[in-house]
Amino acid sequence: MFPWSVRPNLLALGACFALAGCDAPPAAKADADPVAASPTPAPAPSASNFPGARTEGTKQLDYGFAPITFDMAMTSWLVVRIDGKPMNEMWDDPVTVQFGTSTLSWNGCNAHRGLYVQRGGTFATGPLTATTTRCAPMPDGVIASVLAGQPMIAQNAEGKIMLATAAHRLTLSQIDGSPRESAAPAIDRAPFRLLTEDGGARPPILSFEKGTFAVWVDCPGAITGKVSVSQGRMKTAHVAMRACDTHRPTATNALKEFFAASPAISRGPDGELLLSDGDTVIGGNQCYTDTKPCAHAVAK
User: Fold this and answer.
1) In the chain, what are the domains?
2) Interatomic CA distance for residues 170 and 106, integer angstroms
3) With the CA atoms of 215, 216, 219 and 221 taken in that order, what torsion angle do they form, in degrees rounded to the nearest 10?
4) Where along the chain is composition biased (Low complexity) (predicted)?
5) pTM of the full predicted structure?
6) HSE on the CB side for 273, CA within 13 Å?
7) What is the distance between the alpha carbons of residues 146 and 170, in angstroms, rounded to a whole number?
8) How many CB atoms lie within 10 A of CB 256?
9) Averaged in consecutive runs of 10 residues, what is the pLDDT profile of the chain (300 residues)?
């Protein structure tokens, strides 16, 4: 229904987008503190220790890694292994990945940046911008495919993180440094054009005003509700759909259910928007520099 509707085994968003890992069985016990060491060897962490974690396909993980839910905002990482091979054997320069509150950036041969949003126990990305230095296929292509692939996230007893898709695995080691993010425009400065599959030339338009939100879908206020945006979440209440002369009632109802789920929200400095209810991901752009993409929603 939406072009950015995503499932665990699909790459629904098409854009381009750590010190040596440990392959041997760890001698540390993973309990409530996954980094705390134990003087005696213990079994690898169990996926059952991490409720809500994405657990399908755990055979993709290296020994000692167990699935966890996403908790990487405002952290920086060094890529130390790709598919189990030490990074320094494939690439001379350090490759880093940074998660801000809304922005994912990483530097390989080129520098990349874009929005990400939490989706269930993992994350989904929007389109990424990148510099255009000519590069060998490694490491940028593999890293881009993992970060854009809604990877399984896992951790070992040393605190290293693994991001795994069906095709590739990245092992990350945390490094010092906090990501810097530019502020997004005020959320009520201008409405947002939502990029939905059936939008055509008249896509849904999302607007915010004084603790409320409204979505234009063939008529003003086709979907309305109360809203509070904080801590990466669009917390909604009293979401309703009004009777409207529309050729897409099924899509409108699906959009109403999407907003009733209080979706996660990320916004960028150029008006970029990314929303996820944990299943579907919807992107958008704020019409504050160019109002034409939202002009069809202005009440006549």
Assistant:
1) 47-175 (2.40.128.270), 192-297 (2.40.128.270)
2) 13
3) 30
4) 29-39
5) 0.78
6) 26
7) 8
8) 19
9) 37 32 39 36 37 52 93 95 91 91 91 92 91 77 92 96 94 92 94 83 93 95 96 96 89 95 96 95 93 82
